[in-house]
Amino acid sequence: MKCIKCGSTTPPFIGLLCLKCYKPHIKIPKKIEIKQCKKCGRLFFSGKWQSKQKLNSFLKSKVKGSDVKRVEIEDNMYKIYITDDAFVKRKIPIIFVPSICDTCSKISGGYYEAIVQLRDKGLRYYNRLLKLLNKRTFISKIDDSNGYDIYVGSSKELFSILSYLKIKHYNVSKKLYGLKEGKRVYRITIVIRS
Ligand SMILES: [Zn+2]
Ligand SMILES: [Zn+2]
């Protein structure tokens, strides 16, 4: 086979043209701006702050065009297959914009919705609570002067963690903290002693 345009005999061929002469129909945005949190490194894409894990599939979804069969990412380049074995490479036009995510801005503002106080036998939950809280919400502060007082970002997540850990014996007290979108917002204190 011979390319009808340049005469090259080097495969692969797309129709009657070699890969160099073929102009594939591929659309890539001019730039893909992604906010990156300066504190925790998480990225903002697909409408939320998240870890880098899903970034590649997000970046792949930005490649459009009738010639795009499959997209891979290699060394920060798009590898775009236009047939099963012929591909072209394109630069990924990604720009990281330094920013602060909502969680980090709440942490630095000392935000919390609940305080968990571990006393006596309740202290044995410390490690497990810490691990789950860090995973599902955030901790603004820990005071260890008298047992542990853990300041927690989300009271909703806290209750779901308590039930996950099958912690049933605790005291709850509520304190009106303010109004948020017309609703009363409470700060909750939970004491676990047994
Ligand atoms: Zn050619
Ligand atoms: Zn952050």
Features:
194 residues, alpha+beta, 4-stranded mixed beta sheet, 14 strands, binds zinc ion
Describe the structure.
This protein is α+β, with helices and mostly antiparallel strands and 194 residues long. The protein folds into two domains: 13-99, no CATH class; 110-192, no CATH class. It is 18% helix and 37% strand. The strands form four sheets. The chain has a five-stranded mixed sheet. A four-stranded mixed sheet has the order 5-4-3-9. Strands 6-7-8 form a three-stranded antiparallel sheet, with no helix packed on it. Helix 3 crosses helix 4. The protein starts with 12 loop residues before the first strand and ends with a strand. The model has no long low-confidence stretch (mean pLDDT 93). Bound molecules: zinc ion (2 copies).
List strands and helices in order, with pairings.
Blueprint (H helix, E strand, L loop, with lengths): L12 E2 L2 E2 L13 E6 L5 E3 L2 E3 L4 H6 L9 E5 L2 E5 L5 E5 L2 E6 L2 H7 L5 E5 L7 H11 L2 E5 L4 E5 L2 H10 L6 E10 L2 E10 L2
Parallel strand pairs: 3-9, 10-14
Antiparallel strand pairs: 1-2, 3-4, 4-5, 6-7, 7-8, 10-12, 11-12, 13-14
Helix pairs in contact: 3-4
